[in-house]
């Protein structure tokens, strides 16, 4: 079954519409962010702030100060970029319970082109003190993550995609912020992946196993706080690590893993991601191939490391 995590976002909000503190905001993109589903189900709890992302985040901060749990929704490029100052000062500085629900992240936005493809948003959010960053792998994990967010204290950056992706989980699992998940066991190497690159990592692991290379696949749906215990275990038990993310290799998951290991367990780390480039307009699957965000690319890197 294929479903976009943005679709799961809208559907999950509807399931939670009777929560007394839940409110949903959007910056005039509700048909794309899928908050329009919630708007129809609970119009009294939905606020369209127009093309004014900074105002939307400021309003979310005010609602949070009043005891509400706002989900502020827009494209990742507009929230992480255009509203950065408001996220930093109005939300995170005050440690408010605001969720920045950022859809259309990464290059798989596709034909909208490089101006709309956020490949630096994780970097921007990582440097904000106290910010939690979640990047769920499929629709079921998105639902579980949102349920957990409703009980979480502090700001959250929830990264969601436009592209429909295959389910990794057969049933909804409990979601624990800061805890990674082992999907495949192996000791020849480790692939640490997040978002839709988890599906590519699983495909790569299957192909590598057929060639006698058994790799571990870890799903890091929480990027901050990083599951340092699982990273350390992988570094101690396998000779190398590949990180895979639909994001720049500068400042994202790969950087977080490398920074931690450089101080605790120096290990060979190879980053699969966007290599200091802007995105461009094109078919999402072709863009993944162009930027090396595929199982094939992971397999090639793993075989080089396994020599």
How would you characterize this protein structure?
With 307 residues, this protein is of the alpha/beta class. It has 2 domains: 2-166, Thiamin diphosphate (ThDP)-binding fold, Pyr/PP domains (Rossmann fold, 3-Layer(aba) Sandwich), CATH 3.40.50; 181-305, Rossmann fold (3-Layer(aba) Sandwich). Helix content is 39%, strand content 21%. It contains 13 helices and 14 strands. It has helices at 5-15, 30-33, 36-41, 53-65, 76-82, 84-92, 121-126, 139-149, 197-210, 228-237, 253-264, 284-290, 295-305, and strands at residues 2-3, 22-26, 46-48, 69-75, 99-103, 132-134, 156-159, 165-166, 181-184, 189-193, 215-219, 222-224, 240-248, 268-274. The strands form 3 sheets. A 7-stranded mixed β-sheet has the order 3-2-4-5-7-6-12, sandwiched between helices. A 5-stranded mixed β-sheet has the order 9-11-10-13-14, sandwiched between helices. Helix 9 (197-210) crosses helix 13 (295-305) and helix 10 crosses helix 11. The two termini are 36 Å apart.
| Beta-strand fraction estimate | 15-25%
Helix content: 25-40%
Q: What is the typical, i.e. mean, pLDDT?
A: 97
Number of domains: 2
CATH superfamily of the largest domain: Thiamin diphosphate (ThDP)-binding fold, Pyr/PP domains
